[in-house]
Design a protein that fits this description.
Blueprint (H helix, E strand, L loop, with lengths): L2 E5 L5 E5 L2 E4 L6 H6 L7 E4 L4 E4 L5 H7 L11 E3 L5 H4 L2 H8 L9 E4 L1 H5 L15 E4 L4 E5 L2 E7 L7 E7 L2 E6 L7 H5 L5 E5 L14 H10 L4 E5 L3 H6 L1 H12 L2 E4 L4 E4 L1
Parallel strand pairs: 5-6, 6-7, 7-8, 12-13, 13-14, 14-15
Antiparallel strand pairs: 1-2, 3-4, 3-16, 4-5, 9-10, 10-11, 11-12
Length: 269
């Protein structure tokens, strides 16, 4: 991985990667978010020519400037929003407003659901639409291109309109399996990923809870052939089980690299 270094305001270097996934926060589920047991900020997806914020939950704007290396708001090109739930969407409006200087410049892109834009439960404020250069909505198995970033969307089973993603970054397949009830088609949607990122809210299955649990992670390890798996978006039962310990046990059992993300974790591509 090539890196370039730039000093800003002194001798402290900021490191820029050609391909980087930065987990600003790893909280999932209402209790962990409400208590801020983990940060509920989103994830930065950075390529050579694009910097997008993925699912900017509460505190994302603050974490962009305080996490190291920081991501200046001036460097952000847009937002990808998988669904309307507040732990994924709360800071979307303020980020879009910030990158456009409050509408003084038409700039940036938004990729999201129709529900987030137009339903009675919309979370994107209507006045922001005119500020943006590009707005696109998802459908199942739809392909998108933004600068040097390519990705494909897959409809998930969740109480609201929700999509997961297969990104192509630096010729690697980086898949985000966001909130969903497990169903067999997921194994094919995200098969052969170089990096498979799973939102694992639950340690064990709970009836009527439409989120992945550790048994679901094992299905991906058995049948989807990922090269590396990253666990994130932890609920309280996962925190009690210790995500690092869970990841180590899965790595040993399946002879695959399994990582538990933490707040501020930088994943180089």
């Amino acid at each position: 991985m090539k890196k370039s270094y730039k000093s800003v305001g002194g001798n402290t270097p900021l490191i820029y990667y050609m391909g980087l996934i930065k987990f600003l926060g790893t909280a999932g589920a209402r209790f962990v978010v409400a208590k801020q047991l983990r940060y509920s900020a989103g994830t930065v997806i950075k390529t050579k020519s694009a910097t997008l914020v993925f699912d900017p939950g509460p505190g994302t704007l603050l974490r962009l400037s305080t996490s190291r290396p920081k991501t200046p708001i001036e460097s952000v090109d847009g937002v990808i929003l998988s669904h309307i739930h507040l732990d994924h969407s709360t800071d979307a409006n303020v980020i879009l407003d910030s990158i456009t200087n409050g509408g003084l410049k038409k700039y940036g892109a938004l990729f999201t659901t129709t529900e987030a834009l137009f339903s009675e439960n919309r979370v994107i404020l209507p006045f922001l639409r005119d500020y943006l250069e590009e707005i696109q909505t998802f459908s199942h198995e739809q392909e998108f291109v933004y600068r040097d970033l390519k990705f494909k969307t897959f409809r998930h089973k969740h109480p609201v309109e929700t999509y997961g993603f297969r990104f192509n970054i630096e010729n690697k397949t980086i898949s985000f399996v966001v909130d969903t009830l497990f169903f067999d088609d997921l194994l094919d949607y995200y098969r052969d990923s170089d990096i498979l990122i799973l939102n694992v809210v639950r340690y064990k299955e709970k009836e009527e809870v439409m989120h992945l649990n550790v048994e679901d992670v094992e299905k991906f390890l058995k049948y989807s052939n990922p090269k590396k798996v990253v666990l994130t978006h932890f609920g309280l039962t996962m925190l009690r089980a210790n995500p690092q310990k869970v990841a180590e046990e899965l790595s040993e059992k399946y002879n695959k690299e399994v990582i538990a993300a933490f707040d501020g974790f930088n994943l180089e591509i």
